[in-house]
Every structure is written in C-alpha cells, then in structure tokens.
Amino acid sequence: MEEPIKIMRSPSGNLKCTVGSRFLYEVTLYKDYKDRSELIDNRFYSSSKPVEYKEIQICKMDNYLLSKCITLLEAPIDYLLTNGFKEWTNEKIRRKRKSNSN
Is the whole-model pTM more than 0.90? Predict the structure, then answer.
C-alpha cells in the first residue's frame, strides 16, 4: 500500500510544502499593469540542494511591472523539520457548544 503524502506547514503558516526526495520550486513571471495582471511564464525546477532566493522580485518598466515569484513546493523531510515546519492536516477541530439551559 502506498504511503500517504505528508504536507508540512511553515512556522508562519503561509507556506505549505509536500515531502519528497528533492527540492521542487515553481517560478512564475507576471506582467502587472495598473488595471490587470498577466501570467507570462510558469516553470518548475528541481534541485538536490536548497536554493537561496527572495520570494518576490519586482522590476519596474515604462508602463508595467515585471514580478517573479518563487515558491517551494516539495522538500526532503529532514530539511523541513530543521526549518520549523510541522505536519499539517486539513481536519477542523470541533469545539463543544455551551448549552442554553440554565
């Protein structure tokens, strides 16, 4: 039977990453105008070592902005645990309601 996919959450809670054997990154390039944003390109990169990067890079042009976003999608479990990631489940914790009777 296959092992279930583990999803880890960063300490700040804004990044969710799956556990894998290599580092997997998604790089997206956007062209931002005053009234809209267009996706120019989207690529995936794999690496055996973690890559140092800024999450968002912005370059100003004449009448638009180019923004490049890099997102970590997959990483080895030992890297995630040493950087404070914790296992994430989508299960909601139910709270008991107080009774209305006095």
Answer: no
For the beta carbon of residue 81, count every other beta carbon within 10 angstroms: 13
Strand partners, 59: 66
Mark out the alpha helices in the chain (DSSP H runs). 77-82
Cα(50)–Cα(24) distance, rounded to whole angstroms? 9
pLDDT, tens digit, 9 for 90 and up, residues 6-52: 677 766 667 778 888 899 999 999 999 999 999 999 999 999 998 88
CA-closest candidate to residue 49, choices 77, 28, 80, 75: 75
For residue 99, with 0-12 CB atoms within 10 Å meaning exposed, 13-18 middle and 19 or more buried, which class applies? exposed
> Residue 69 has what DSSP assignment?
E
Q: Are strands 23-32 and 65-75 parallel, antiparallel or unpaired?
A: antiparallel
Q: What is the pLDDT of residues 13-26, one digit of tens each?
A: 677 788 888 999 99
The single residue listed with the structure tokens 């489940």 is 89
